[in-house]
Protein 1
Amino acid sequence: MGKNKTWLTLIILFYINVILEQNSITAQTIKKINHQITVDGKVTDSEWGELKPFPLTMYSPTYKSAPTENSEIKIAYDDKYLYASARFYDSDPNAIRFTTYRRDIINNDDCFWLLITPSKNNVTSGLEFVVTPNGNRVDFEIFNDGNSSNYDWNPYWDADAEYDDKGWYAEMKIPFSELGLPNFENETEIGIITGRKISRKNEYLLFPDLSPERSYQSPSRAYSFKFENIQTGSPLFITPYVLGGTSKISALNSSSSAFEYNNTWNKDAGLDIKYRPSSNLNLDVTFNTDFAQAEADDQQINLTRFSLFFPEKRQFFQERSGIFLINSANERVFHSRNIGIAQGQIVPIIAGARLVGSVGDWEIGLMNMQAAKKASLNIATENFGVARLKKRVFNPQSYIGGILTSRINSENSFNTVTGIDADINISGYNYLTFTAMQSFDSRDKNSAGTKFYDHGLYELKYEKRFLQGWSGYAILTRMGKEYKPGLGFATRQDYTQFTGLLHLNNFPGSDSPFQREMFFHLQGFAAFRNKDMSLESSEWFFYPSAWWKTGENLSLVFYHNYENLEVPLGFSKDVVVPAGIYNFGRGLVTFNSSQGKPFSFFTSISYGSFFDGTRTILTFNPSLVVSSYITLSGTYQSNFIIFESRNQNLNTHIFSLKIDAALDTKISLNSLIQYNSLADLVSANIRFRYNIQDGNDLWIVFNHGINTDTDSYVPARLPINNQNILVKYTHTLKL
């Protein structure tokens, strides 16, 4: 009888738990309302009082610990908009962190966010909307299930926030037309992850309950909700621009015997059009495209045998760029900086178009751009094209896709790359990735006797995507000697490479001062020449690392390098490493302070052998929040290289200072001042923006470059490398 009572009690408790679970799910049901909510950050509309808040779980610093502050997040919708509200109470309201009013800059502030996965065909991509306590908005796209992001996606949406002596409050209003929803009749599903960040405590509170074994910004982990009878519409946005200004550029004269200044007055106009042919397709058309307001590149110093990689910073090419990514660990099949930029100079773009979205079960991305002739660089008129297809297969986390890129100029020169790729979730956290690309180039007629694989890039990758316990990847890559990605970026040619990573992570729990411990991390590569499979170069490094719950991070890194130089490697005109075989290594210590404090920094020191010499590297990157209106940040890195046997020394210095100033969410001034000792160049990029409203902007941009060494060059350089000032106005019409 006693056993029967025990079983009966357990059964009753089980069903009580089921009922409670069902009630919690009911509380999370999103309610459709009958009229629009006023978005003012006050969270006082009566509709909010009728909704139950989402249950939040602590993600970090200690998973499932009790939240230290009370929080309420609610979501509702009507026919056209998705609404979200937050009431974030705080026991120390003076410690609420908000450091900037600049759009799309968050600076580790307290925040309320909403991550949306709008497409059932692609649950590894998402759109994130963020608002901070002072009403600053941040929005970005997420790709590859949280491994990549794009902050230059700029949708039209509204948000506001307020704070008082009890905490802070926020509201969002997001048009369904901005989400790229798939076609549906009466009902559609949208995945949602939402949460609160308390910066000073490094505390993240989430819905749904997500364990830290994977990133909380993984769209595939979103909780699915059903929405009924919503309207997406097909808005048309027309954005003309006008600009004017003056420029001074130092350039060689016609005989290349001396530098001279070229002074020009600039005036131009153009047009961008955004249209949605259907709820899940986005069409962008551009005429006489201009990128005057793009941020300047960060200065880099190259102390390797490979070309430097510079990321894309132009908004048109960054928007919706995730569809064009290929999961290759070592090479880029498509890199948009090949369009409109050559030898560091701007090549005018006459017109272009991009279509991105989904049709049925397929994701599609199409782009075509026409660039003008650039006589000073001896570049003919060129057409650039890329077509991308992806389809979900087997399960929501797997896809197979294909890509075609083309580059054709008016002198009958062409380059095409075509191929397939796949990312397959074979079980649990285990993934198998495959890439196979083939290039066709007008120069191939001079490569008689080559095999088909000499024109290809092939890669096979196994990866365990898991942060808890053992994880890692193994990659095998082969690139042929005739593979030419005309719209891509290649680190080297004619090689076979093994790349590997193995690490052990642990999240120790509430009794430890550490949020995360990495006891073992081994990573590196070994590259072999295809012609004889001799080892060309390798780098392997091992490091343990620890992350404190307060936000600090300490790492100890040990490197070993191997280089087989068939030809000398020059770092400057006076410092050259002879051909030969070199084994060398170094140690590195890095420390990251807590990013939730007004002053934070990253610093590192490294010392060891370098080819047949020694190398010391010092890095210091500080950041100071002066107020919510001004943030200062900087970078300093120095290299001290000594080749004692050859009596050669090389000291290099990179310095940068960023000043982010914003009067409010509409007016901002951003400055980037840099010094590169190897290039003997000081540069400044200063950008003033008055964001009248979404789509309507006034920009004033000033660029200035100074040559710090003029006489050591032949012919001698002029003091001013370049100088320009431009005024640009854009105005968006919504039809």
Note: The longest strand covers residues 259-278.
Protein 2
Amino acid sequence: MKSELKAKLARTFPKIKTIQSGRLFTRQLSRLVDATLISLYDSLHAKLSLEDHLCLVPIGGYGRSELAPYSDIDLLYLHDGKLSNQTLSTVISEINNYLYNNGKEVGHTCRTIQESFDYLDNIQSYHAILDSRFLCGSLPLFLRYQKDFLAKIPKKRLEEYNRWKLDYLEDRIIDSYTPLLLSEPNIKSDALGLRDVHFMYWIERTSEYHLELDHGVFDFFLRGDTLPILNAYDFLLLVRSALHILSDRKNDRLDLNSQAEVAELLGFGSSKELYSIEKLMSVFYRCQKEIYFYLGTYIESKRNNTPLGVTNAFANPDTLYDDIISFFLEAQVSNAKPSRILLNDIRFASNFIDDDFKNSKTVIDSFLTLLQKKSRIGKILTLMHECNILGKLLPEFGACTNFPLFSYHHEYTVDEHTLLILRELDVLIANEWDDPQVQEVFNQCEKIHILALAILVHDAGKVKEGDHSQYGAELAMGIAERFRLSEEDTELFRFLVAEHIIMSELSSKRDIHDPALIQNFAKMFPDVNTLRLLYILTIIDTKSVGKGVLTNWKKEILYLLYQSTMTAFLKMKNPIEEIDRIEQTLESYLSEKEGLEEKIVSAIVKYATDVEPQTYLSFNTPRRIFQHYVQLKEWNHSKEPFRFFFESEPAFVTITIFCHDESKFLLFLCGAISSLGLNLVGMRLYRTSVSDLILQAQITDQFGSGTIAPEQMQRIESQMLLFINGQDDVEEIAQKTAIWDKAIRIPAGMVEELVKISNDLSQSYSVLEIRVPDSIGLVYRILKSLLDFQLKIIFIRISTSADFAYDSFHIQTHDGKKIENSELILSIKEKILEVAQMKQNKGIFEISF
């Protein structure tokens, strides 16, 4: 009998697996306690004749009907002063002891209506009574309590507490410098936890007090566009309840040890699978961000006394991209705090941004301008990320959103850690770093915008298993192509991402006083600026891992490593050529990261250096080169006509093909991609020393997204086999698509057609630029035409705006030279115009020497 309530609650706990609603689950627990206390009170009333002198008033979380499994039960014993102390003591003792015997902690207070005014100086007590609801006993007494106390709390006190809450929330959340998404969050009390929602709720409770007998947080957030915060709050209640059940006690810290079990209990997958934790925490962080955005707009509306709502400032689809990027550029220049309501509008508009946003030249140019201004870069990029814009422009970074780091020294998610590094960069740019040594080095740095790009991508590789630095470098190469960075900036970008942990590793694991180590390390750098930037990246990256990680000792050994390396570099008489540095990096990776024997390392390095053109070494990371070597060996021992494999990236899918017949496979791949309604956005061709072809292509779906199902990729391979076996005609298949597409048409004359051959952009190849109306199979027809002229294809970049193709082809003659014969150039022009279905002499034809 004494454990009846405990047993009822225990029988309810397993229901959390199926209910999947924190609100419903905690309300059911509250009702179980309600029913028990009502029954207990009735039995006491029968013995003690309490009449209308006493009532039980749940307060706090129990008053909101949000009782977590092991939360305290807070009760107000409200009386009218006419019961004896002995009677009150008997009632309180009976009820509290019953709850204690059932494993519940009790927080109670016994007051009259008048005495309640004496406790308003304590803000915690004040908040608790705002959650008062009637349970049992004298209803008239409770109604007087509402009328004579709750409705008569001094207005000055209400305004004082509400101002404090708004100031507290703004300082703690909106103006926070440190990240808010933690790897081990306290669900209740940490930033963007349950308590922050309660603060808004308590402000609303005093703004328009309701007299309903049953109420809670949800009743006060059912106005306007509030569904996201309701869902977020509901999920946090659910996770907190699950954590209580698994801990078998009151516990609100969702630490690394408990996340796996919570994930399994709530249906995210097996506790043994890391992916289950990733899914749980991703949803958890997404909910916190919903709270963050609602809270920001709520505070602004309260400050300005304006209603919550949208302004339609970003409602025009024709100017949406320009409007959004211009907003952030203006915010950077004005140095003012942007409107949270406008930021919320941008966040809403982000749902309607297409995948071509990341390829928009206007957007990319504006973004690079933002990085080059060297002013509040981290702050503005943080705002862009909060509005879901940064991930749209850089899906490589967007893939890290809410991605947890399963490490006891990493306090933040990948995206929050990255943005904190960028805000540390802001401090350096403002010349306000607290260490003069670090500030002095930074003040000598150039190309800060490339450093900012490298920071954005440096940990993006952590979303995949394996060496995140190598994968991050591959992502950097894709971004560099899309942003059309120069070769010099591309190499700097790639280097900073690929090597961003090396200084930290050397300083903590190796003897940095060893002259040979310093000498070899110095050989990695092409110039002093790269060394300076890598040192700065290492410092601010380490500091942003968590509080106290960048100790004075760590700073000193990093500075010693930097100084020693700089001295060694400046003493080098013959700086190492770029190709030699890349070879050295490849050797180090193969021996140290892959643990290969020297003989195998030498064979792989020879294979890579023999591949033509030599850009193979700079475009492909050591990880991918090793992958190619293994796959090539396997393919050469097989009887397969070609080897096909792919890797999914955030912005595109990379296809790699090994084959023998260059022209045939180029056309087969292009035809297969076209027939499935997919877009070829880039292609590179390399040749091994034994004339095997390595074909690397980047493709997207019809909307420009890198999300392509594995089944689609398998269909590409199957279609190529049909071409090889003569079962399908590539000429016919390439000119049609299985995807219905009604393209947007640009009015005639708005875009001028162009065919341009430039010989001044490279020492080794010509660049053919084409701007013509797009059509199904266009790339296939252009490729076939170029191959008919027996030209070598080095690199292809494809982009489309509405119904116009903006394509460039890096090409050579069959003997590896530039195309300088005027008759050949004219023939190429005529053929391109023909296959583009344009009339002769329409458009512009240019030749640059």
Note: Residues 209-214, 740-747, 838-849 have pLDDT under 50 and may be disordered.
Protein 3
Amino acid sequence: MMQAAEEACAQLEDELLFCEDCRLYFRDSCPTHGAPTFILDTPVPENVPSRALLSLPEGLVVKERPQGGFGVWCTIPVIPRGCIFGPYEGDVIMDRSDCTVYSWAVRENGSYFYIDASDDSKSSWMRYVACASTEEEHNLTVFQYRGKIYYRASQVIPTGTELLVWIGEEYARTLGLKLGEHFKYEFGEKELLMKLFQDLQLKPVDSISNHVSSQSQYMCNDMVTPVMQAHRTSYPLNNIGHTSSVFPLLEGTQNLVSLGRAQSRYWTFFGFQGDAYGRIIDKTKIICKLCGVRLSYSGNTTNLRQHLIYKHRRQYNDLVGTQGAVVDPHKSIESVSPCELASRAIVAPTVGRTTRAVADFIVRDLMPLEIIEGEGFIQMLAILDPNYKLPAISFLAHTILQEMYIQVKVKVVELVKNLQECSISLDFWKHSGALSYLTLTIHYVDEGFESRNIMLSSRAVAEDLSEGNLTSVLLDAAEEWGIRDNTFYAVGLNSSSVKVATSNVGWRPLPCVGQVLRGCIETVLQHHTIQSTLDRFRKLTAFVCSSPTQIEEMSTHGPVLKVHLKMFLRDGTKWYSIYTLLQSIVDHSNYFKNLTETIRESDIVLQQDDWSVLQDVVDILKPLAIATSTFTKDQFAGLSLVKPVITSLLYKHLAPNEWDSDFCKTIKKAIHEDLSFKYADHDVNQVLNLACALDPRFRGLDFLSQPDRVETLHLLKLEASNLAKLQTPEHTCVTPEPLNAKPPIKKVKQDSGIEFLLGDLCSVRNSSVSTVNQQAEQEISSFQTSEASSLCQDPLQWWKMHHTQYPLLARAARKLLAIPATSVPTNWLFTDAGLAVYRKRSALTAENVDLLVFLNGNRLML
């Protein structure tokens, strides 16, 4: 049990940081100096040539060292002490024989793995930082934090100085290396540490705790009082009431002076330096009797307790165990569980209401963290709460928001783990320059038949969206969230690379109907005749809006026209709003025709042919505009709407008529070809048809041909049967009684003699026991022949009321009706809301994109 407790303590220390000024460990933020500053790498996508060099932060440069190889130098005036670089990036390797001089070992749950930065296309600039040859020349210290490797500036680094990392006691203790009682915890050249790595995997996991020295000395020679010797002696602690307890104290500590009024048990190990008369010389510095370190003292025992927890864990456990304040006095420390021990040792700092409100504001409005440094924001907070002090951006990002992220991610992982079927949507968006991101969102229908959407990670992707890069990104995300096996469909861009990548992961690709409709409308607007007509009308609109007389006259036709003309000038021809603008223009055609009679400039005058073109465009765009508005009813419209809408566009609203003009027929033909091509894939049509077959509004499948209808019902039977076979026994549904079912025919009792003679040769089948396939057929037949629902009814609400009547089909409905028709919320596609969201995302710094987009997308879980 003690070994388990030691391992729990090691895991706890993995969550702690170290203050170079206080010489104390802390969680998230130093009580005296605040949160540390993390120097972030320049964001560069993975697998980019020379990624390590490109990731170099501003103020650093890589160049050749006089002794050979490369190193990193500081080019800014100064790097403050305590700044943290990292994390160290590279390939994860498990075999110690694969380690190189670019490898660091990481301890996790009692075992080890290695981060190797040999490949400069996967690593960061930290691979070029050289190791110090001696303790005196180092200015960086390596340490492990939250399962990753970082470098911390152990002293001020002026400009022109090479960064040199040092492996000291902190990292050695993290790895559990036993280097001898009097071994100084420092290493020079990296090759020396490489030899120590060879011992890590050879140790049994359960013996790791034995390699942690319980009496490791705090090696800060300038902080050790001169009267104290390097060796230790056993000193009986009779003053705490347990004469049997023996703690190793430094010789000479009996001369230290304690406070006369001190009552805390922590004073057992601390005292002040006194003069010959026993008077305290300096009450601001207190000395540890175990290691001789001087600590700041401000009138309370906080620093004393922290020092014992992080530097003398065993003595602390024995102390609080014998006192009974933290551990029951009748229970030994070995009998305390590791989790209980860890939870008692550290209490997470509380976040004030105002600080939490600031964090919520950033998350909900998707604001860059730099906004809190704005003059207006600071002034507003000063008015609302004059005594409030804003936290540093680094503390907000790496402590508060990171804690919020972890809390939500734990909920999401637990939820996703229990999903049996879900779908995923792929949102590709451009951040800045050549940096693009892929944001993943999963979709499912819960047991209450409510549609749910959960945003997962946002990952940087190459701008060209190559199949290999995209496949790698999707596989990593699927592994991280555990969604590869329970995800069946992926909705995204209708590009070949996206189709291949999603298929490689095992997901069936489906096109985003919003992107398809956008392509159709842009096909109309890109026609040269329409473009020239719109250009002339734009000039006419500019003329009208620049003349006070015309503006006054235009106002007599109502305010709507004025608003639409200003939108036309400001926004141009946005595909999702152009129909409304053109319809308004055509409705007021008489006003514009009368106006053109007074204008002499021929290039801004619209002729009758131009008005005919505009009327044709309005007639063509009308069904497309209605289609887009149909999908905006829900946040994510269901896939079952796609096939009926596309079919009605192809064969009714956009089908050529005998009264169409030649121009109109040409445009309709182009749209027809585009739509037919986008939905020509047979597999895609099968999924669309299945979704329609489970939608009570379209259950009759009247818009399908007879062969397609037969195929769809057959596939539906297979889908429902397969899902039923995968279902656990406790969820197996009883066959429902079909609607309008006739009373069962009474079975004629067989002659007992026949049964006696032939019963063993011919198995007697009970016709009342239906197989899963038969049950599926019965449910489909009953569902198909029942009355269709209203087109305005929500299909999931219908299933919520009828799922017990069709248990097998209900399971299939939860799977197929969860598939979204679009890759992003529909209002992002068909309104200006999407522009606002992507504008906010692009304003985020690259290192905070995943964090803030995730929290914003799942803000209801906070």
Note: The mean pLDDT is 79.
